[in-house]
Amino acid sequence: MNKLWSQLLTAIDRRSLRERLLVLVAAIALIALVTDTLFIEPARKAYKADQARLLETRARVAGLEASVASLQAELAADPDAQTKARIAALEHALAQADSRLAEAIARFIPADRMHGVLRALITQTGGLQLQALRSLPPAALDGQADAPAQAAEADTPAIARIWKRGVELELRGSYPALLAYLRTVEQLPWLLNWDLLAIDGKDYPNAAFTLRLNTLSLDKEWIGV
Hints:
This protein starts with a helix and ends in an 8-residue tail after the last strand. It has one domain (2-217): Alpha-Beta Plaits, CATH 3.30.70.60. The chain is α+β, with helices and mostly antiparallel strands. It is 58% helix and 18% strand. Strands 1, 2, 3, 4 and 5 form a five-stranded antiparallel sheet that branches. The protein has helices at 2-13, 17-77, 81-106, 114-125, 147-154, 175-186; strands at residues 128-135, 139-140, 163-173, 193-200, 207-217.
């Protein structure tokens, strides 16, 4: 691929400045289309499907927790065997739902490993220089306020909040190196969502790339980064 890229650059260098600019614009558009088709869109679809299942499981956990809290209040007022049995059944269902929630979260790359994994892949694929790598502020997936604060106000159990945790990378290098990097990221055993891929090709034949990726986590704060 590097040989083909060198031949392509030689052919482009023989053309006029205007022709080179037109080729550059077309190349950037083509690369953006290829990366979206081969890497970004498939990853986004898988991410969104698992995100929907995660939200559904979280809603079930919240409903079960509310039911358990209600029955525990009922039991405190009138401790009978039937209420105890209902609480035991609900707590069993809640434990199963919590387990499914943990399994769903495990499909996403752990937030505290994102920096290290993405850095290591840059070294592994080669051809790219890391200019910057920063963590983005966490955002609740459902857009609501923190669960503990809501629970304190309503005197109800805290509901597990799912957080979107993102990073932004600024890279510099060749287009083939970027494609190789995206391919390697796409082959990771975890799910990642692509929020942004921006290309600045004014320094042709190299370019500046901005990537923004995110994962889902039950932890709001960055740990071990």
